[in-house]
Predict the structure.
Amino acid sequence: MAETILTVRDLSTHFFTREGVVHAVDGVSFEVEKGKTLGIVGESGCGKTVTALSIMGLIPKPPAKIVEGEILFRGRDIANLSERELEDVRGEQIAMIFQDPMTSLNPTLTIETQIVETIRRHSELSKEAARKRALELLEEVHIPNAAKRLEDYPHRLSGGMRQRVMIAIAISCEPELLIADEPTTALDVTVQAQVLDLLDELRETHGTAMILITHDMGVVAEASDDVVVMYAGQVVEQAAVTEIFDNPEHPYTEALLGALPQLEGEGVRQRRLTAIPGRPPDLVDPPQTCRFAPRCKYAGGDSCTSRMPELREIRPGHFVRSEHPASERARTGEAIHA
Amino acid sequence: MSTDGALLRVRNLVKHFPIKRGLLVERTVDFVRAVDDVSFSLHRGETLGLVGESGSGKSTTGYCVLQVIRPTSGSIVFDGEELTELSGESLRRMRRRMQLVFQDPHSSLNPRLTVGDIVGEPLAIHKVGSRNERRARVRELLDTVGFDPSFTNRYPHEFSGGQRQRIGIARALALSPDLLVLDEPVSALDVSIQAQILNLLKDLQREFGLTYLFIAHDLAVVRTMSDRIAVMNNGKIVEEGLAEEVYGNPRQLYTRELLAAVPIPDPRAMKERKRERQRLQAALAQQ
């Protein structure tokens, strides 16, 4: 039986700005199981990072506010904890790594100081024991010459090595959930592969649950068990990773996959890519209709533009928020031909 | 005229940047060999993709071609003229025919100029036509790149990344160049917008017979744009050839390692690709 670590239910995080209320996250639900990786994929501004920051209690209040929903970590609602209570959850139970390892590390402190600081904040270990643990951690994330690297300052390390240090700090208190927000976006492709392999290895050895946030469909395919596709603050599709890539249902997911340049195949040089026209909607007071409809080639003058489609289970474990999912289009298409 | 029909011929290009030490009296202690003996040719209407990781020297190579950076040594022949020997007015005359499109559409457009002024600036600098003719040309250019010409009096910050990149491309096209050096033109854009810009670049190339030097780190993007591909590492071209050959049958271990590292949207291929990476790493470690 799968053990659910995190349940996010109807989460809505809005930003109250002078221009109006920005519905950055609007009714998002998902679960993360022990030892599994949930990939959250979407383009800039789709709400994937705000979702993660809401879970971590790191959204800037004001202007942001969780206006609705629950974030249940092992059954306990952490959406409305005090700052003091949150500090114990963060690091110890849920840890996060960010896109840019240079700005998340303190440039004036050695690697050792920064790891020891985290360990000591969350445990009773002596300074000496914490140092020993820091060394073990660097070895665990495969940093060569770990003992020597401990004394270095962050600028001495390459981007990939810095991200390994961030991962070492994140796993130092053995969190049950690790949130990785675009952890490899700033890295070169060969280093990216190594960091993704490392995350996968850690998930396996520690049974950590993971949320991997990315804009890259390739990274999702490589590193997730389950996938949530977000668009304009909402979940538009959700399924197991093979299901998403084999049978994408939402026109947006299909279009995203179609827009990806291919590494192989004949005639790619001559072919045009299938671009998605237009761009995502403004999230200040968005209309209560399908948010993808203005860019969707299947949206007609029907219900798409008059009401918001529900997120519905089209096959067991496969959810989609659209009036025109691929499998239903195929079926009605057949009916017309017959 | 050049003998082999190439629009651009780069031979033994070298660019070293000095590493300086000392507080009051600077002395050069060593050199970074950013570009280290690079040669390639580019034919009219063709795209050469220059792909590599950060620090491989691909952008420096592009800047040397345009003489934005003066190379340490080597030859760059553009349409029969040796660029490294030109300066002043004669270089300026050649530069009209080669333009650069930058990566970041946020920092490469002057925030104080209107869209119309940005696109019209190259025309004004090179004193092309009358004011009215320039204005008409700007509208025509914006229309060509799919940017609503009625927005010429707006400022760049009012537009999204994709729209701003269209402005940058319109500016690059203003003087009807032969060669565009595209330095990571879509890496700051979302996938759906990236596809729009790549399609636009393909259309423009066909319509105006443009020649592209396409620089990017994303191997799939380079593949979809290029006739030939040169893979760079540590300032050198390690492998060069027809796109389908370099990717389909890479000869160098480094190229194979790069290709095996690209995450592809196929979860079923994941395990096999991971094994391939491990094999290659072992092979590279033995070298």
